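FYI - complex with iron/sulfur cluster, inputs then prediction.
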Amino acid sequence: MSNYKVPTMAEMAASGESPEILFWVGCAGSFDDRYKAVTQAFVKILNKVGVSFAVLGPEETCTGDPARRAGNEFLFQMQAVANIQVMNGYNVKKVVTACPHCFNTIKNEYPALGGEYEVIHHSQFLQSLINEGKIVLKGGGDFKGKKITFHDSCYLGRANNVYEAPREVIKALDIELVEMKRCRTKGLCCGAGGAQMFKEPEEGKKDINIERTEEALKTGASAIAVGCPFCLTMMSDGVKNKEKENEVKVFDLAELIAKDQGLS
Amino acid sequence: MNILPQVVFILVFAAAGYLLYKRISFLKRNILLGKSETRNDQSSERWKTMALVAFGQQKMFKRVLPAFLHLLVYVGFIVINLEVAEFIIDGIFGQHRIFAPLLGGAYTFAMNFFELLAVGVMASCLVFLIRRNITKVPRLVMPELKGWPALDANLILVIEIILMAAILTMNATDQLLAERGTEHYIALGPLFFSGLIKPLFMNMGEGTLTFVERFAWWFHIIGILGFAIYVTYSKHLHIFLAFPNTWYSNLKPKGEIANMPEVTNEVNMMLGIPTEGGSEAPTEIARFGAKDINDLSWINVMNAYSCTECGRCTSECPANITGKKLSPRKIMMDVRDRAEEVGKSIDAGGKGLEDGKSLLGDYISKEEINACTSCNACVEACPVNIDPLSIILQMRRYVAMEESGSPAQWNAMFQNMETSFSPWKFPPSDRFNWAESVKDEEMK
Ligand code: SF4
Ligand code: SF4
């Protein structure tokens, strides 16, 4: 048996190949200790299914999402234009990413700066792999028959109307999906968007992630599924704050699939 | 024939028309204090949005009870105003119920329907008064509503109830007079709701009855004209502005923040990329982001004038829910208040925008705008497609780019991004380290 492969665009180009998709990893996917596991799980799935993909590796930089949302348009565009130059240089057509913020920015905001790609969130990509029979699920592994709740990320849901793909992935796992009171269009933010991830919240009665975690815990689910690195951090912190980390786990969709497939 | 009532009617009508014209010009000028923006692409999509959201009340139905009551008032408003057309013709030509002989039984049916709606409107307004003042629905009693906004809301409800009561009184007395064979008055078929209050007037003499009938008639028509003028001062302006406001909705994905092409030119120059316009000299950029209403788009200002202060945005805002100062409704109210202040100052020959005040700072604080997670819950919730987020983000741009006044942690984040191309301070060379362990693992 061979090892997992993580080809870069540069390597591919050097050997005259061009992959079908660019897997955009994002800053959290590259640096956040917890989220690196999600990146790895997703890469294993891509390997297993035999998708032709590559990453930018050291050539990738932040999409600029937090800079733009915090108001620093110059910095955003510096990042964006540089990224677009790199991607256009490799003639990228299709981008898959696990981060809704990268997804939104590349999909909706890069075109105005000259970057036009087909952009897909990993929940949509996983759903299509399941539908096409490329991933055959084995019944949910550890979570078989257990209750799980899904936390909508604002940048996937309200921002881009992706509500069903993550739910389809969860349902395919033979897991009982229970909805929180505020879900889909009415979903409550985890508190990290709009560059809030990078500063302390303003003064208030409570932090947003605590409010959201309380709501998730009320469903009685044994796991909270997310499709976003920021949501993963915020919900995990919330669960820890409520001292429930032994009973309730927070997972990304890619991890659920990887577990089912015995990849991690 | 005594033509005095006709002359008075025409004069009252003309005066109201003049006052309305003045108010509309004032509002239009205030809205156009905002920057110009062209947003008329996809016109068929725009008409559809307006039909569904404004005319069809689509987004109201996220909350069923208020939606139903609101629908009653809305339909009542539109349909009963058909009757006003008859009022106007009668008033000008000195007639009474000019359509009654023409329509016969259908007229009686229509009157019964109007009365049913009038009762529906009264009942709804009563429930709304109770929700505001007795059961105190949280979003209807928040701090930003203290004073005029709360009074405004209650006044509208009370005025509507009184106007509807006038219709019923008018019909009841009118029919009593017709039954007594008084000249001019036309007997219709039975009218159910006004029939119920007839006993109240039964014992009045013909003179008193005529006086009550005429009073109710004049009260109703003057009331409606007065209401039309009042609306231009009130949050109730949404009954008209909801239409253009939804037509000019943002049809792009909600997550997309508008590009700043003037920045693109500079960025391209800095990165040595030839710009599209070729050798064109970069245009002077007056201001980055928004500090005052003239930096916002006119659509932002129109949004503010269309706001009903219903607070659906605020009650969905995660920042507000968890007790932060931010309330998207207050943002909209502040924009309107500032536009009014500037407009009045200009009309009085004052300093207008140069009065030393500004939207950001004097009305809206940085603490408010900094708390926003850009989650779009407010945009999603608004029944008339108002976009408070757009205003918040434009003000953040002003703070970040003109003042360098962002929170310290954001400034640190900016610096990380400039130097290590990530919001966190990790060396860029470590970006690909995550792949090491995967590459070492044997594929399962
Ligand atoms: S986008 Fe901002 S203002 Fe609107 S609901 Fe979300 S946090 Fe509140
Ligand atoms: S912005 Fe919309 S949702 Fe918010 S108070 Fe105004 S009308 Fe209501």
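Chain B has 20 helices and no strands. Residues B 316-319, 326, 328, 372-378, 388-389, 392 surround iron/sulfur cluster (ligand 1) (CB under 6 Å).
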